[in-house]
């Protein structure tokens, strides 16, 4: 009986080894397909031309970015599924230091799109959100979406096409106050 159990165990081990090899080969094939088709989850730099180094408000972005140590302007389009996934992930809020520029056919359509994505229509006026319609000129003259424009020290620094929600959150500025250095215990008074 133990010889049969050992034979079955050996067959199961060989089968598991073959299945593991097949799964590893599938992952290699998927990776090759992504590389060939360009469907990698990587940020793609976008040339902003003369806008780099300029004040954000001079290019139609929210004026609070002119004073930001670190900031981000996110450009999205109401017809873009990746844009919708990113905006829905925000749950009706914008991270600190982030503004939103939405391309929509009309302002009403843009408000409806934002409210269907979790934003409160009444609070939109209080947020750094701009709806750009087909009648308006696109800020920066760029129509790539989703697009993240990074601001450093009140100046436009760079821009990236954002392929996923995960990559967007990696770009969100970490806006925190500076921590005070700890004082040595000898300086602390009771």
Structure, described:
This protein has 190 residues and is α/β, with parallel strands linked by helices. 33% of the residues lie in helices and 17% in strands. The chain has 4 helices and 6 strands, in the order H-E-E-H-E-H-E-E-E-H. Helix 2 links the parallel strand 2 and strand 3. About 5% of the residues have low confidence.
Give the SSE layout:
Layout: H1 2-37, E1 44-45, E2 70-77, H2 81-89, E3 98-103, H3 107-116, E4 129-132, E5 147-152, E6 155-161, H4 165-171
Parallel strand pairs: 2-3, 3-4
Antiparallel strand pairs: 1-6, 2-5, 5-6
Span from first to last CA? 77 Å
Radius of gyration (CA) equals 25 Å
* Poorly predicted tracts of residues: 176-185
Question: Could you give a short account of the major beta sheet?
Answer: 6 strands, mixed
User: How many individual β-strands?
Assistant: 6
- Helical stretch count? 4
Helix and strand run: HEEHEHEEEH
Mean pLDDT across the residues is 84
Question: What's the shape?
Answer: elongated
User: How big a fraction of the residues is strand?
Assistant: 15-25%
Structural class: alpha/beta
Helix content: 25-40%
Strands in their spatial order, largest beta sheet: 1-6-5-2-3-4
